[in-house]
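INFO worker-7 received task bundle
INFO bundle size: 2
INFO processing item 0
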Amino acid sequence: MNRSIKNSGGQIASAIIFPMLIVVLTSVLGIFALLNWSAHLSDETAEDSQHKLVAGALQLTRNYIAKQQTGVVIWDEAYRAVDDPEANRVWIRNNMMNWLSRNHGFNRSVLFGSDFEVASVFAHDDNTEWLNPALVDELQPAIAKVRAQYINSFQKTPSGLFSFMPKGGETHLSIAETGKVSLYGEPHLFTAAAVVPQIQSVFASRKPPAVLVSLIPLRGQKLNNISSMSRLAGFVLAPDQVERDGVGAYQLKSPRGNNIGVIAWQASQPGTQMLQRINPFLAVAAMIIAAVVIAVTVFTRQMTRRLARSEAKAVHSAQHDALSGLPNRSSFQAMLTRVLEESAQKGTSTAVVYMDLDHFKDINDTLGHSAGDKVIVAVANRLKHVLPDNGIVARISGDEFAMVISDCDNDEWLEYILDQVQDEISRPVMIGRRELFASLSMGAAIGPKDGKNPDELLRKADIALYDAKANGRNRRSFFEPTMEQHVQSKDKMSRELRLALRNDELDLAYQPLSDTDAKKIVSVEALARWTKDDGTVVPPSQFIPVAEETGLINDLGIWVLNKACARAHDWPGVVVSVNVSPNQFKHPRFVEKVMAILAANNLPPERLEIEVTESVFAGRDDTVLNALRRLKGLGVKVALDDFGSGYSSLSYLRRFPFDTLKIDRDFVSDMNGNPEAEAILVSIIQLGKALGMTIVAEGIETIDQIRFLQAHDCHRMQGYFISRPLTSTALSQFLENFQAITAGELPDGFELQAQSAKG
């Protein structure tokens, strides 16, 4: 019995106490490691702070010596002296350089003229050989900045003169640059300032200034001043970087970025000192705690931790996306609500950014969903990498992410963050050995300017995202009220257009096309027209793009096709042309629908012409070519509309034999008296003929255009001179009047006849 209890106790000890003892001991060791790391971090922070103190003190010293120099560089008499071609070098030396040496300790000075030539050199010991080409080269960047700032300080007056109006700064009106250089192996501080007039002056032109450069050694009192300002002791100058524990070092660099020396000091190490004091006590305390914990609470703590881990995991799973590890939509909404409440209390702004991966579907379709998942994970990690400390990023849906940036009162800060996002995402994503390049479209809304509640901000950020995608993708847009108006207007128009199609409230207009001699109407182009019940005319340029974006173009195109084929019987022998959108070709049963419409209206295929634009070939979609070939095989004519206005590539002219080539109206309107435009027009006509196509010139408005096209044997003509778009009734009357015209040269007054037919 006792042996059984002992064995049981041993099993419990082995199964629970010993593993937990290891855990506790590991934790204690971890605490020691963390303390050592914290001490090291504290030492680094202290050293960094001391480094900033030295840098700040050095900058104050540089500003001070620049201010000391202002007495001789902002001086009308000095400005006239250095600007004089016959400059009095003795005066400059005594009243400028020597004065700086006596009063402020600048033991060397050099004056560079407006052409960057050395005008005067000064040394307190009269040894002027200290100025060498290497030193001039080191000073050149600072002098160049001074000259540039001086030129930019002029403002052009209405009279054409230039007013010198420098901006105030640390040295009032002085235009100066300071820095450090090495002279004879010793670090020196220098200040380079433009010699300028004391009062606002007006000049006929701008020219570079004379620049006075004054140097003072970085030792003795100057070094003591820096030590005093930074409150650090033991300052020394060293030629090279000091790499020793407990020694801080500030690297001195010249304007060219060359190392010229080091300021070293005895650095304080608070972390190491603290660790040395508490380590013995911590060791004893750790052992006592470990013994007590193991003896009293091991089992309870094990259970508690297990339950806590399970609960935390469940909570995390409910609030985070399983693939990316980012917060999910519901968690994001809650966090955004909290951030907006805090921002309202603090009176700060919060930016909400909606992001969408461009063409992500293409990745899934070409490489599979596993590759798409890897891209999502990579994008999520990169977004977390560039996210500010107070920011939030979440995965909203498949390829959509959202980001919250609080305390965003500065537009430049938001621009900077979004620049980082785009730069990070633009790096290639490796899928196996394959590089994938992703891009993001982003839309941003800023609260409370654009909204105060999460739903409103998210909606407006989504509207801005739509604007970014509509304007070319891989870009960002910030919400503007006009975007919302555009979305609402488009939504209203799409609903009204859908209702108009359902109720057959649209109509068609028909624009005739004549033959070469303008004696016969050979075809008419069907054009959709929409007049609302209240008499408002909606131009095609407005409702056609809305139909394209909302997918209504398929219904609209079929409606136009059916209506045109039904009315074609009223005009025997005339071909009816119908424009077809690229989106219509993507419908898998488009050709079958065309065949059904021809059959339903008992119209021979030869009397139907499908007009497509060059954009239908964007992306080289073989589906489009196959559909066109099937239609052409049925006998339907195919015309290429607006030739020359889009891609203007001859490759698709070889890939598909069009029946008709319609020359864009811009070529016709530009040809009047323009030999180059006429030559281009003739070339297009000859090209179409060489390919066996019927050539149509659009936009005919004058008799001279007709005669020119007749002279070059253009097959067909279309434009306002022939006729404007007509209703079906007006077209029937127009055709009747047109046929009454006798054969021969186009008679004078035909345009009037055509206008009267429009009635």
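INFO item 0 finished
INFO processing item 1
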Amino acid sequence: MRYLVYGLLLVGLFLQNTFAQVIKPISWESSILEENLEVGDTATLSFRAEIDDNWYLYSSDFDPDLGPIVTEFEFEEDKSYDLLDSLVAVDPSKGYDEIFEGDYTYFKGKGEFQQKIIIKEIPFLVKASNNYQVCSEINGKCITFDEEFTFGEKTKPAVGSTKAEEKEKTSTDKSETEGKKKLIDLQQKDSNSPYSLLGFMVVAFLAGLAALLTPCVFPMIPMTVTFFTGKAKTRSGAIRQAVIYGLSIIVIYVVAGTIIAVINGPEFANWLSTHWVPNVFFFLVFFIFALSFLGLFEINLPSSFVNKVDAKADKGGLGGVFFMAFTLVLVSFSCTGPIVGSILVESAGGMVIKPLLGMFAFSLAFAIPFTLFAIFPEWLNSLPKSGGWLNSVKVVLGFLELALGLKFLSIADQVYHWGILDRDIYLVLWIVIFAMLGLYLLGKLRLPGDSPIEKLSVGRLMLSLVTFSFVLYMIPGLFGAPLKALSGYLPPMSSHDFDLPTLIRENSGGSGAISAEDQLCEEPKYGDMLHFPHGIKGYFDYEQALACAKEQNKPIFVDFTGHGCVNCREMEARVWSDPKVLNRLKNDYVMLALYVDEKTELPESEWYTSEYDGKVKKSIGKQNADFQITRFNNNAQPYYVLLDTDGELLVEPIAYERSISKFVDFLDEGKEKFEAKNKP
């Protein structure tokens, strides 16, 4: 249940992206402006565009390397005419794109391009085509189109003929359009929002509540309690500080998130949640806080800063409160990044208002509970003094900080394949940490600041029972037990050195079973560093999987995943492990896992510039993430797509889905659609 709300967010985005039926937002008309043309005359070819409301068309007169697709025209060579000068965009508007950092020109409502030619023969024939991009102001998504045009005269115009007759004789052809009712293909569709801005804010608000339950946000609660304990002498002072704290969280998220949306989009959120620099930094922050809670030292800000904060005590200590809010946002963003990224993907075309409102709603939900916890320390201080009980609370929280901080180091370790914190090592550390916590609760360990325990309270006894039960639960994991309750927090099973279930499965030699090698057409690229769970065999390269699907005549199961994706590991442990699901994945599909955070750089010959953001994609992860965004208009993980042997969608993709029956139905529907398409 802890990710139910996150699931609602993904469902909302999924509905937005999957069921959107949109019209073609532009139509073209072409004509020749001059009449009664003779050999040697100059003619002006006019291309006029009618653009729907809330859409705009990029013009032709700006740097084509900037990023957006410039409107370009091509003319077939013909002996009956010559081009004169270059194409002219008639009075376009000008703007500055902060994403691509450059000036561009565009049309709204109506647009016109003109090309002059010199007539060399009568009759003459001009065939032209264009390629262009139109973008939505509502959601920032862009779509590319192309058109064809024909101009020509069969006979020389008669003197005195009417303008209407001459237009008919010059065969002014409108470009072929699919009409206002055409549906955009699912792989190239625009995602007009099916819900209002208010609805979008509600979804973002629910996402903020869900973010509180992630492993790098929840441990920040004790930091908040510790920071505000004793900071205010009165209830009004505590409330004032708490409100400032909550507002600081909102301001930081809205400002930082909007800047990221406009400048970098969801790619930066992915960097922050997967790159080794922020993750190792966050691990060190948790480790230092844990040592402080355990009593090794007290965390003190520089004296000069403390003096300034103290000087502002009567005003609420804004510096210290803002610093604590900033720390919360910075550390928690590693886990909230994928959720925030789903909001920021709305800004792909440079939108500001919608991601700003989304970030406000997200941070509001995020700030409210922390604001209440900021008020809570006064209530703690008002309780009767009971010796070192408050220090015991800090020590317990210190153990938790120490354990949960390992998650950040684990993410960096998985992404960069360091091999220093495999699943078994991770489990050993957790078993030792929580065993020591249990001993501490029983009074067998004493740390600085603790009072002697003369009698063991019932509360400490019950907590120790829970702690030791948790330790016993983890021990089978050392031998390969899946530990489904911890699947989102632990490294993947593929990093486990002694995986007993896998050893039994590989050496069982059951008759009639399909061997792992028979499931593959060739050795998977990157198979030495990327793996599937539960003995599944598959590929990590799209082209390789597509070739195998054609050879075996099977559909493709595409898993957009990541090393640092908590929900991906949980889906693999809770849903994929079910025999009904696992059997279908192994036998009915060619499996393809595309890691969006894999840092391995590809050879320069495989680099390309993305049509989505104009940036060169050099690594496996960046290319996979770009493929997911440009092809399926989604950047959240996990994301599951079923394709046929031509790479076409079979059914609507799904995201985080804990229901095994629904996941089985999804797989069965894809197989049925594939078999129906391939009937002789």
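INFO item 1 finished
INFO post-check item 1: The radius of gyration is 31 Å.
INFO post-check item 1: The chain is about 45% helix and 15% strand.
INFO worker-7 idle
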